Amino acid sequence: MTDMGRPIRVVVVDDQPLIRAGFAMVLAAQSDIEVVGEAENGADALTLLARTEADVVIMDIRMPVMDGVEATGRLNQLVDAPRVLVLTTFDTDEDAFAALQAGASGFLLKNTPPEEVVTAIRVVAGGESVVAPRVTRRLLDRFAGKLAPSARHDERLDLLTLREREVLGLIAEGLSNSEVAERLFIAEATVKTHFGKILTKLDLRDRVQAVIFAYDSGLVSPQS
User: What tens digit of pLDDT does each residue of 37-49 get?
Assistant: First the structure.
C-alpha cells in the first residue's frame, strides 16, 4: 500500500504480450498492487499515462515506435512523474545505463523471479532505488566510457559539506551504507542522515541518480 492507504498503481510497458500478461498475472495476486494499464511501446505508454495515474512503470528498453530510454526521459520531465523500473537483459542491453541517466529509478532483469519483481515495485514506490550498491558499481564500470569526468567543476558540489562529499564518493564507488560507516568511523544512521541531505541539496531522487551525479560531476572517476 502507498502512504495514502491505496494500492500501488502499476503500468507495464513491453512489446511482448506474453511478458505483459505474465507481469499482470503476478501483480494481480498482490493485495497492495494494482495494474492500471499496459502498453506495447513508449509512445503508447506516454499516451496512456497522460490519462491514467500511476506510481510505478515497468519499462522495457527495446521496443518499436519509441524505446524505453526516450519514454523514460519524457516521463521524468513531468510533474509528479511515476517512477520507472527498467526491464533489461543487462549483459546485452547497453541502453540500460542510458535509461538510468534518463531518470529511471533502477532496473530489473527479464529473468528476475516474480517475488523479487513485487518487492522491487514496493521499494521503488516507497521512494528508494532497486539497484543494489554492488550492482550499481558493476553497471558503472561496464559503461565507464560514457562517464567521462566533467571538464569543469560542477557548482552543485559546493552545496555539500566535506563529509557529505566523502559519503557520496564512497557510495558512488559501490559501498553500502554500513561499509561507508565503517570506512569513515561513523554510525550507519549518520550515513543515512548525510545521504538524505545530499539528495535534498542536489535535488536527486535516489541512490542511482546520486551515483550518476558523482561521476558526471567529476567527484569520482570511472577508473577510481
Answer: 999 999 999 999 9
Helix (H, G, I), strand (E, B) or coil at 14: coil
183 within 8 A of 176, measured Cβ to Cβ: no
pTM: 0.72
- By the 8 A CB rule, do 213 and 177 touch? no
pLDDT digits (tens, 9 = 90+) for 76-87: 888 888 999 988
More confident residue, 137 or 219: 219
3 state SS of 10? strand
3-state secondary structure of 87: strand
Nearest Cα to Cα of residue 161 among 209, 201, 132: 201
Q: How far is CA 96 from CA 118, 208, 221, in A?
A: 20, 12, 20
Distant-in-sequence contacts of 179-187, Cβ < 8 A, 24+ apart: 179/133
H-type alpha helices, the chain? 17-28, 42-51, 68-76, 95-102, 114-125, 133-142, 162-172, 177-184, 188-202, 207-216
Q: Could you give the percent of the chain with pLDDT greater than 90?
A: 48
